[in-house]
Amino acid sequence: MGPIGAGQGKRRPDKLDVQARVKYQRQQLVEHRNKQLAVNPDPVRKLSLSSSGDSGYNSPQTPSPNLSRFESVKALPSAVEYEYPAPPIDIESSSLDTEHPLYCTDSVELIPLLDANGQDTGLLLKTLPESLEAKGKEGKKAWALKSLENEAYAFKHIPSSEKLVQCFGMHTINERRGILLEKIQGSTLEDKFKELRVLHQEKVINSIQFRTATQRLLCQAAECMKVVHDAGFMHADFRPHNLMYDTQKKHLRLIDLGTTTHVGEKARPGHEWFVDPAAVSFKVNDRRRYMSTPPAGREELNKFSERELEELPRGAMTEPKVDIYGLGQMAYMQGLSDGEDPEIFTLGANISGIRANTELAIQRQFSSLPVRYQKFPVLPLHLDRKMFPKHELAKAVRQTDTAKKIGRDYIQFVNATLAPLRDNRSTIDEVLALPYMQMSLFQSNLADQVLNTSTDKYRTIEQERIRKETLKWNSPRT
Ligand SMILES: Nc1ncnc2c1ncn2[C@@H]1O[C@H](COP(=O)(O)OP(=O)(O)O)[C@@H](O)[C@H]1O
Ligand SMILES: [Mg+2]
Question: Is the pTM of the predicted complex or chain greater than 0.70?
């Protein structure tokens, strides 16, 4: 197999040449560092900058002609480090409620913590499931642990915020090591979106209520994203499963920093529906996934070698714009899906139906990106029928009509966030300045009212559905 990104014949539309990439990367780092210092000139906690500060690389205004590619990478500034807050309970006397895990997969388990009296503490331990202790699972266990350590690192380098789940660091409880997290009361954005779609479909809420509530959630999701981007990180798995609607604080909170990387580090793209196509393309070829065990250090795993810097596609880079695509995807699916199940859009195609090899399908489509997706917006206000092949036209017309009903601000938002090419996509600050992100007090109140009552209304509908189903099955057949 040739080097990653090579051998495709055609040049990737989203690929920068080496010099441009290094320049871009350096520019991003300078921007983030300046932003961080402006927001927090004297971080309360340790500032783990090298003593030379920014001098390791030059500002984009004064590029040094002698600066080699490799030097710029070695001189990457590390992220600002914060202390974890002390856990609000005595860890020594607490125990894990292993009988009632909140969530369990083959690589992670979330277990509630009980105090000395067996009472719920409102905390969770995100740890490895016991199934990973089995023989032959050593490699998988090492990877799962790496992901937890990566998450702990990200939490340590992003300042605490109401928009992010609170993390209390790595702890060992009942001999199980994991990340101690606050337990958020509420449901995921995935569930919240579904509730709203069903309530709208059943005409329990009207279109204005549905759209305003959706808009409010998207505004809050963008605000959550800003916290991560301002610290110089990208989340890399920014999707509705990883945002929770906190019913006590009455707003969204971001969770799951398992894939989060700092600018300058190699990306670890999350779910292919929500990371951008360039990141998916990298994910398909990412050689790390073929390693049976990860390298010991986090740095080793995420840094670029000199060769990789030249060969890897732009999708390998940590660029916060990857998350912006996820936000656009959320806006698109929630705005334009007809029924209970959302439609997922990638490069003009509805990919929700593809069950296997989705990543590969996206990569193929991206490497031969049709001109209409390079040159035209995702939701063109004025549809040129010649732009679309026959089989896509009817759908495109329908989508455009629906989008127009939602409004021009929405169309502008989708076009700014869901652009397949990174250069055409907005940054978080640009996104937050868009008209769609500006809601009046009246709109916000209306949205909050819908969001605070939607779960109960949805439950009533579900119960009614179950009652009808039961009646149907129990009624004597004629
Ligand atoms: N702090 C939390 N409070 C409440 N529920 C949580 C919390 N963290 C995660 N969850 C729930 O557990 C699920 C999986 O957690 P997550 O951290 O996303 O793990 P994974 O890395 O496997 O995706 C989430 O989708 C959410 O439903
Ligand atoms: Mg998750």
Answer: yes
